[in-house]
Each structure stands twice: as structure tokens, then as C-alpha cells.
Design brief:
The protein has 304 residues and is mainly beta. The N terminus is likely disordered. The chain is built from one helix and 23 strands.
């Protein structure tokens, strides 16, 4: 649930770009390495299966920061800072850390810290249509390496869908209190300003435009979507989740974003291992709801 501080970028320095293209039939993977943006280096892996294009940044813990239609420059995801990727993030007890003047807590983040220090990728491998990343996360506020947690991410392109499986392993000795946990955090372009979901109270599909503070909603069906004025955008199928939080930041600057996260309430305790799966999908609401309904009926169709 991160809101970053606006940074105005005055120059773009690209030191070296190496591109590796591997084609299997119409499948495509493009690996861009050593791309420098001011002081922050980015290392992107792009996957394009002819229907959708997905990018993960190895300088942000392998988190997903790009989703568009095939070969399109129109990315629907927001990656304003290291907390804005589609990624794992967990919350524990207060630990004396400080987030820009705000007392904070144990908060390992897959992408990195609020000051832009990247998490450490321990292992990664990929094919033209899938990838695996193993990451040592960073503490969001302090920027210290979280040595008692490992995050893993499996990503598969399946037609016009992105299938993600996440695993978190906590080896710490401290038992934290139960808190809302993001499953996962999702940040999208601010032009997708309407949150759509099937509301539990009314059992109807509703449109919401949350304010700048976290608002909470109960789900009748395990999905949500951010859409634009044409009712088109990105949906998230959140298996086994019936609760979400959302907000929108609107200030006319680069930090503007639409955020939502499926939530579960759980405690980080010694030996805790948590796995969950989500599916991302582009399109119009009717199409997304139909696909998500089929996934609910056939959960074994979710890869890997």
C-alpha cells in the first residue's frame, strides 16, 4: 500500500542495451539488460506470446511491471517506485523503522525499499512463455535486506492470461500479530479510474471510484478489475479471496495511480509458508467475468 514521493526525471542515461531474441513458433522473449535510468539500473525480461506482453524487472526483485497487448507500448501497470509493482508484500509488527518520517513496521517487499534499493534476486530462469524468480526481499522503510524471508514467483503466459503463483517462506523467530496481507499488491495506470467487482452485500457488479485513503470492500466473486471510461482495463482473479482494499491517488503528477489488493488476514509465525495464485487479464468487463467464472469452476486450469 505504497504512495511514493514524486521524482522529476531530468535526463535518461542509457549505458548499454543487449537484446536477446528467442523465437519458438510465434513465441517471443526479449531480454534487455544493463538499462540505466539516471542512478537506477533496470534489467527487464519481456515475454510476448502474440496476445499479451509481460515484463519483469530483475532490479526490482523480478516483480512484474509491464502488462500490455502483444507488441503494444501501452503498459497498464504503474511502476513509479519499487513498491508499485505487482508483487509480494507482507506486514508484521512495528520494528522501530521509519518511512520518510512515519513510524513503520516489519514489511518485506519483493521489489525493494521506498528509497529505491532493489531486492536481491537469488535465482531466475525462463523460457519464451514462463519464468521463475527467487528473491530475498528488502525491508520497505529501512532498506535493509530481510534475511528471514524468501519470496518465489512463477509466471506463465496462457493465451491472453497471466498466471502467477507466489510462495513466501518465513524463517524468523518472532511471531507477528495477524494483519491484512496483500495477495498481491496491484498498481495500474491512473486512466483506469473505476474499480469493478461483484459486491457481496448486493450480489451485483458495482463500479467504485475510491478516494486517496484505503477503502475496503467484500467480494461475492473472487475477482476485481480497474477499467477506463470504455469499461476496458485489467482484471485480477484472486483465488480464495473475498475481501479487498483500494485507493486512487490523483494529483496531476507522475505518482498518480489506481491501487487495489485482494486481502487475507494472517500472521507471520516461525516456519510459515504461504502459497497463492492469481490470474491477470486484459479486456472488457464481460469478457473478464466470463473467464474468471470458468477459472472458478476449473481451478486446476490455473498454471503452474
Amino acid at each position: 500500500m505504497k504512495c511514493g514521493v514524486e521524482v522529476t526525471c531530468l535526463a535518461l542515461a542509457v549505458s548499454h542495451v543487449s537484446v536477446y531474441v528467442a523465437c519458438v513458433s510465434h513465441w517471443l522473449i526479449i531480454w534487455l539488460t544493463s538499462l540505466s535510468f539516471l542512478h537506477a539500473q533496470e534489467r527487464w525480461l519481456f515475454f510476448d506470446n502474440g496476445k499479451i506482453r509481460v515484463g519483469i524487472n530483475l532490479q526490482a526483485g523480478g516483480s512484474m511491471g509491464w502488462l500490455s497487448k502483444s507488441h503494444s507500448p501501452d503498459n497498464l501497470l504503474n511502476r513509479y517506485d519499487h513498491g508499485r509493482y505487482v508483487q509480494q508484500s507482507f506486514y508484521g509488527d512495528a520494528d522501530g523503522s521509519d518511512w520518510n518520517g512515519k513510524p513503520w513496521r516489519y514489511n518485506p517487499v519483493q521489489g525493494g525499499s521506498w528509497k529505491g534499493l532493489p531486492a536481491v534476486v537469488l535465482e531466475h530462469h525462463e523460457t519464451p512463455v514462463d519464468s521463475y524468480v527467487k528473491t530475498q526481499p528488502m525491508q520497505w522503510a529501512s532498506g535493509s535486506l530481510v534475511k528471514d524471508m524468501i519470496m518465489e514467483q512463477w509466471l506463465n503466459l496462457v493465451g491472453d492470461q497471466v498466471h502467477l503463483r507466489y510462495r513466501m517462506t518465513y524463517t524468523g523467530s518472532l511471531a507477528h500479530k495477524a494483519r491484512h496481507q496483500e495477495m498481491p499488491a496491484v498498481f495500474v495506470t491512473p486512466r483506469c479510474e473505476t474499480l469493478v467487482f461483484c459486491e457481496k452485500a448486493t450480489q451485483q457488479v458495482v463500479n467504485k471510484q475510491p478516494g486517496p485513503k484505503n477503502e475496503y470492500f467484500h467480494l461475492q466473486e473472487p475477482w476485481m478489475a480497474w477499467v477506463d471510461a470504455q469499461q476496458e482495463g485489467m482484471g485480477v482473479y484472486c483465488e480464495g479471496t473475498d475481501f479487498l482494499t483500494a485507493y486512487r491517488v490523483r494529483g496531476g503528477h507522475k505518482g498518480d495511480v489506481s491501487y487495489a489488493a485482494p486481502l487475507r488476514t494472517l500472521a507471520l509465525t516461525p516456519g510459515c509458508i504461504l502459497e497463492y495464485r492469481v490470474v491477470l487479464l486484459l479486456g472488457k468487463i464481460d469478457h473478464m467475468r466470463k473467464v474468471f467464472s470458468e477459472l472458478a469452476k476449473n481451478p486446476h486450469s490455473i498454471h503452474p
